[in-house]
Amino acid sequence: MKKKTDRKTIIGSSIFGCAAAIGIAGILGFNALSGNSGKAFAEGAESGQSGAKEQRENGWEAANRDTEYVYCVGSVSKIYSTAAVMRLAEEGKVVLDAPVTDYIPEFRMADPRYKDITVRMLMDHTSGLMGSCYAGAHLYGDTNEEFLDRLPEYLAKQRLKADPGEYAAYCNDGFDLLAIITERVSGMDFTEYVQKNLCAPTGGDRTGSGVTYLSMEDLAPAYTAGHSLYDEGGTQVLGAGGIYATASDTARFGAGFFAGNNSILSESAKKAMAARWSDKDMYMDENGLGWDLVSINRYEDAGITVLGKGGDSLMNHAFLMVAPEERISVSVLSNGGSSTLNALMAEAILDACLEEEGIQVTDPEWPAAVNICDIPEEYDALAGAYAVSGMEGAAINKITFPEHKYMHVESIGPYKTTYMDYALTEDGRFAELAYEVEDSGIDQMRFALNPVYISFQTYADGRNFLAADQNTRLPGIGEQAQHFYIGEKLNEDPVSADAMAFVQKAGGREFLLVSERNSSSIYDMPFMGVVPAAEYPGYVFVTNSGLGTRLLKIADATHAVSFTTIPSSRNRDLLDVTLKEDESGLKLVTSNGLEFISEENIPYFDASLSEIALSSDAPAWFKIGKEMANAEIAITDRPEHSVVYVYNKFGEVVYTTHVIGMTNVLPMPEGGRIVFLGRDGESIKLTGF
């Protein structure tokens, strides 16, 4: 393979505007670093203005300037927390295969298997932890330095979803435990440790975290796709997603993983991070230690190893891609878009760098599917209901094989049912069809563009899983191949009449968030619903637009629990829920630290309300009835740290004081809700006109 001995640095800068080719509306920053040693630097365009404060005062004009912004890099932070503990391990201060309890003695769970969780399992997502504690995790214009300290308290109430080490499923909480280990062992704050031991050695000087972001200059303005300027968001899950940095600093950090660059880690430590956690099953996750991707087919085919990690948090998105042997590090940071789009852009930049070296990377050709019209009778045993988890949330997929000619999938969600048909192909997988056979006819079956391929996988213990293969092509952008388990066959166990009292109490109700502080971003999507799965009476859908829909199994009259064992990241972020009743009414409490109250327990807003008393512990919720629908209500006085949200009847935010320059006139949509958030002893004053 051709190597250059002297590579020029590719200079990049942060750009504000709309990059229509990849669908990102907002702020985009990127840098590619290359060099012959571990000390590769990129130059950023200098800023001639004062940063985030001026951006708020002058809006779009000030933001549209030549500077390099600071973004939250989201889950790219997991590479920082992993590298921190790997460095401590090299110093003999941490043993990767030692129990987590050796370093966090107060770590306890409501499941004795927690004692078997090792430090390494936190790094490779195999700990068996449920996933993500959200309480106090994402805030607007605020910090929560107690988050790491309180995490063991939240975990103490949880159980495990799998035996430690059984399979990898994406887990944020594990990396926050790594941040705690870093602090306990080093005696330094996590942010300080990262700055001193990971960023300074790689030339980074503009890196901070969710507890320091408010003091950082040139924070990327938080614009929505509709060009509304929001308060800055602070991600408090420091080890999982709370690092803030420029694109240059992030790419410089990536350069620390170049072959021959031992500025932060030894070759053996970097090699350990770059090894896939398990090679036993192609449909299991492909992560290493911290890294999401340690093997990308299109680069492997060209003889190149590439490491990748994406991240998404609030309005910021990131991707870091490193080719260690070629000494190329690419960081793409944005507000708007997604880490998936950033990954495709990072690939395009990396491909351009490799082309300079005379290395051509091409996408593999997928052979065209060939339909087999007759489905063997042995597939009948695989028909039935499957619990499926996808990007749009959970569903029950009811699978049949009409006339043994094709596979029909009835996907039952909490609010609607969709239908999809698949044809059996020569390799034993079922390829997605462009139309339902009922519409096109068996003789006119056509494969979909970029079809999803579904296959059945049976484990030795008798469990049946659905696996999916998909090669998604985005014209002019790139393509992405994915292989993963997506579903598990349901055991339709009978549920006792007493347990069905859960549905009688909670079924069809909507619950409103009451446990979060006033700055929490979870008030962007504070509604949780419980929807019975009508055809499958032992199950309920628990819905939330931000946290996603989950399918839970009813355990008893007051509990519904996660039950799936899908051995991939489609089994991430599981939760159990508990129904409670007190003098304030019926409540829904989640195992990841959130509490919701039934909507029937909140009052209607009326014209007599001229002052709303605020409380640090209890949001003031109101329903908007016909009497107040479309009334003109104005805020005449509002304390600095208080917040007001208005939602329409669909639960969508139509007003929030987190938008910079928002009017003081409140919209009052019929059937909507309004919430006032603040601190003890304060109040918001209103007037009608």
Short description:
The protein is α+β, with helices and mostly antiparallel strands and 689 residues long. The protein is 17% helix and 28% strand.
Describe the structure in your own words.
With 689 residues, this protein is of the alpha+beta class. The protein has 4 domains: 14-356, DD-peptidase/beta-lactamase superfamily (Beta-lactamase, 3-Layer(aba) Sandwich), CATH 3.40.710.10; 377-489, Calycin beta-barrel core domain (Lipocalin, Beta Barrel), CATH 2.40.128.20; 501-599, no CATH class; 602-688. Residues 1-29 and 34-65 have low confidence and may be disordered. The chain is built from 14 helices and 36 strands. 17% of the residues lie in helices and 28% in strands. Strands 13-14-15-16-17-18-19-20 form an 8-stranded antiparallel β-barrel. An 8-stranded antiparallel beta barrel has the order 21-22-23-24-25-26-27-28.
How large a portion of the residues is in β-strands, by DSSP E? Answer: 25-35%
Low-confidence stretches: 1-29, 34-65
CATH superfamily of the largest domain: DD-peptidase/beta-lactamase superfamily
> How many domain modules?
4
Largest sheet: 8 strands, antiparallel, barrel
